[in-house]
Amino acid sequence: MATAATTYNTLLADALAYCERANDAALVAQLPRLIALAENRVATDLKILGDQKTVTSEFDAASGQVVKPVYWRDTISFNVTVGTERVQLLLRTYEYCRNFWPDPALVGVPRFYADYDFEHFIVVPTPTLAYPFELLYHARKDPLSVETQTNWFTFNAPQLLFYAVMCEAQLFLKNASALALWDSRYAESRAGFGAEDGGRAIDRNISK
């Protein structure tokens, strides 16, 4: 079973040992991709404190587009500093933003934002100045690899990651009975981990 000392290399070794397929060349070759799929599964299933990141920067003056951070998954909050006041930008649809501010050549203080595509936001009005902003978001962890042996999950939720790897391995091996076992382990671990992190949750809409 995976332990607190989990690394990319131990995930590879553990998966082969638990599958009892150490000499299966096809599985050995596929395991790096299966680990990547498992990481995506965990990142999709859980949005927790360990996934949160913050970036601060400035808008490009007279540009309505903002580049999203690397590994961005979704936005928690987005605010802009105008003078000495920090103002929350409100999430709207792309169509709403375009209707609200149809001429991007006109400028003003940003009030709304929308997903333009997976790599960009749009903000409206188009910023008059290079206003500072702060973006809080859920992010995928740095992907594990030979060069990146550990990440947040290998230290804080190694069993969850290991169970996800085993689910992907059994899917590859087309072993339905083993998949049911590991999927059950994964579901139990995910529920427990989510409940633990949920105890730290607060209502972001309430200021104390």
Sum up the structure in keywords.
four-stranded antiparallel β-sheet, alpha+beta, 208 residues, 40% helix, disordered C terminus, single chain
Structural account:
This protein is of the alpha+beta class and 208 residues long. It has two domains: 8-48 and 142-198, no CATH class; 51-139, no CATH class. The chain is built from six helices and ten strands. The protein has helices at 8-19, 25-45, 94-100, 152-156, 158-173, 176-198, and strands at residues 52-58, 65-67, 72-82, 85-88, 90-91, 107-108, 112-117, 120-124, 126-127, 132-139. The chain has a four-stranded antiparallel sheet with strand order 1-10-3-4, with no helix packed on it. Strand 7 and strand 8 form a beta hairpin. The longest helix is centred in the last third of the chain and has 23 residues, at 176-198.
Across the major sheet, the strand order is 1-10-3-4
What structural category do the secondary elements indicate?
Answer: alpha+beta
First and last CA, distance: 43 Å
Are there runs of 5+ residues with pLDDT below 50, and where? 199-208
Instruction: Indicate the mean pLDDT.
Output: 88
Outline type: elongated
Number of domains: 2
Number of helical segments?
6
Strand content: 15-25%
| Strand count | 10
Largest sheet: 4 strands, antiparallel
- The ordered H/E elements are HHEEEEEHEEEEEHHH
Helical residue percent? 40-55%
- Please compute the radius of gyration using only Cα atoms: 21 Å
Set out the fold topology.
Blueprint lengths: L7 H12 L5 H21 L6 E7 L6 E3 L4 E11 L2 E4 L1 E2 L2 H7 L6 E2 L3 E6 L2 E5 L1 E2 L4 E8 L12 H5 L1 H16 L2 H23 L10
